[in-house]
Amino acid sequence: MKFDSGTDQLIATASNGVATIVLNNPSRRNALSCSMMSGIVDVLERIHAEGSTRVVVIRGAGGRAFAAGADLNVFAAEGVDADDRGSIETAYSDMLTAVRGATMPTIALIEGACLGGGLELALAADLRYAAKSSTLGIPAARIGLAFPGVEPLASLVGSARAAELLFTARRINGTEAFEFGLVNRAVEDESLHQLVAEIAGAIAENAPLAVKSTKLALRELRNCAADRDMHMLEESARACMNSDDFTEGRTAFFERRAPHFAGR
Fold it and tell me: Where would I find the H helices in 169-243?
């Protein structure tokens, strides 16, 4: 199945419960253009509406980059006024919000350069897997840009390491990113796609309502205790308990067979 992204710089397909969104701008190391940003929002909406996808993988085309940041040529172009820049920034923010808010788990497959806005996109995903040779970093200070959205980075690596990465603008490889806690796992380049396929497949085989409920709980964990929507989490857990999938899971367990979940 193929989803219309509205641009040839973004390719979205789905098979066996796994959707793959490919950032398809390899000549610019998949730098994020406005059409790619808005396309990601549109594609995630279409994936959600279609209903059969259980996990989304985001990766870059060409093997040389996940995404080497936002396309700075857009900002540098003559005739781009403050309103245009505001629209670009809104598109960027909407993209991150859409990835963070996706109802199904999201995975960033990182090979090659994953820099600046590209790394921020990867941080918006639930899971990150990287090639050991990949290059990750946020060079904002080196090009004179502020980077106010520090919370996702600092929550993963701690404020001290986040400060080091941001102040120095240095780049780290996949192995060091794993040591920092920035990615879930770093593997040899030739093993990365197979690893992500296995992880995505394992998620897709599990009960969708249970996975969604767990994702909600993890999202609420980011809020302080007083602001967590415990009623929503209780309702979500109750829906799982009363679902056909829970009946199927129990039956499959006692019958010693693999369960077949329908997401209801």
Answer: 174-180, 192-205, 208-221, 230-241
